[in-house]
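step 3/5: co-fold with S-adenosylmethionine
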Amino acid sequence: MPSPVAQSPPKAEEAEAVAHQAETTIEVGGSESDTGYESEWASSVSTSVSSSVRDYTFENGRRYHKYSEGRYLFPNDESEQEREDMKHAMVLNLCGGRLHYAPLDNPQSVLDIGTGTGIWAIDFGDEYPSASVLGVDLSPIQPSWVPPNVKFMVDDAESPWIYPINNFDFIHLRHLASSLKDTPALINQAMVNLKPGGWIEMQELYFDLSSDDDSIPEAHAFSKWLTFVRQGLETFGVDLLSPAKTQDRLKDAGFENVTERIFKVPIGTWPKNQTLAKVGLYGQAMCVDGLQGNSMKTFTKGLGWTADEVEVFLVDVRDSFKDRKVHSYLTFRVCYGQKPVGGV
Ligand SMILES: C[S@@+](CC[C@H](N)C(=O)[O-])C[C@H]1O[C@@H](n2cnc3c(N)ncnc32)[C@H](O)[C@@H]1O
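step 4/5: write tokens
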């Protein structure tokens, strides 16, 4: 079975149908039994990403970035990289293979902030061979064999930018809400460094669990976990629900043609539609596989829990994913805007 990362996204017509359901109401599948994805999934997670061994710190058995130490609270080890690449596959399936929604016209200079394993930047470089793509991240975890038009650099995007002004056709950020402390400042900086007429696009999961059929129980351990993560991040000055503010923030910064699309990301294989069930499988694996890494620093350093208390709580949280009567989803918010053609 090929790696999920290598699986091709749905074809155009089906992709439209999937996107439509994900933006409206997702039909629940007829059976609450295992659709077969789970067993396939167990043996299929693999990644070709190789990691550098430079500049890391270790805590509670996990590896973290060393450059600008403490800036990003989640691990950067192999298992976290596999999880990030799986999230990429999840998003591609949800979005019909689209890497962006901004209406780009022959982009030449592209910046991917917080590029992670670089998987989006590499795919973008493949899709636009005439573009130069720069991916920056706190961690040097990107592969060295990449398309010739893709480069990576270790940098802290919340430090002053060293890039030329009026330089980029496209600035892309994805899955950074759990890290950024001053998003409006970063948006203003992006405005300075974009060419007039260039685009910014921010793609973020919104970590508030919902259902359309009231199927989330009152005392749902995963919902409680999300609340604790949000509170823990708050103590570090991070607002995990900030993606709800992106549209206003882009407008406030002076971006034009600001557009937002909101897709439902099912958690679990409950959707009837097979592509959305696959997205749901990835979504659930993303949550379950991320529990330990996303909790440790936020709960221990932010909320004062011991590592043992975290592990005990996580047993209940993992259990909460087994209830197949729960038809829950997170949302994925895509928001893009254009720097005025006449500049600012
Ligand atoms: C959740 S991962 C997302 C990776 C990638 N954008 C993707 O969608 O596949 C967040 C990444 O942002 C990086 N990051 C967080 N804060 C950053 C900052 N201030 N400057 C640069 N990178 C940052 C982290 O090191 C991590 O690799």
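step 5/5: annotate
Confidence is low (pLDDT under 50) at residues 1-7, 33-53.
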